[in-house]
Amino acid sequence: MAVHLKAKKPVVNGLRLRVVRFSGLALTQGVVNTRIDGVPVRIYSAAKTIADCLKYRRNVGDNLAAKVLRESIARGNCSEQRLRHFAKICRVGKLVHAAYSLVSYFPSQI
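User: That's the sequence. What structure does it adopt?
Assistant: Structure tokens below.
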């Protein structure tokens, strides 16, 4: 769960939450308002989620972060432009640039 830097950590009875603290554009950009079972929910877009996985790759695992990036490129889950935008905000732009560079050199490897 993403919360503002100065926000209190939310407590949910019976659930273990992993909380990450964002500020500025990292918190506000890429938010999609949707409804789940009639309840309004704010979630992050696919491109923002991929950028966050790369940013927190040490926590989620390097292999999982790389797999998410590879599969999103192969499936076209989000546009390259949006992914690069969120990667810049999350300070992982070089990783995304390298991934797209590899795709242009080795398209069959994806």
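The helical segments are 25-28, 46-55, 57-60, 62-75, 80-89, 93-105.
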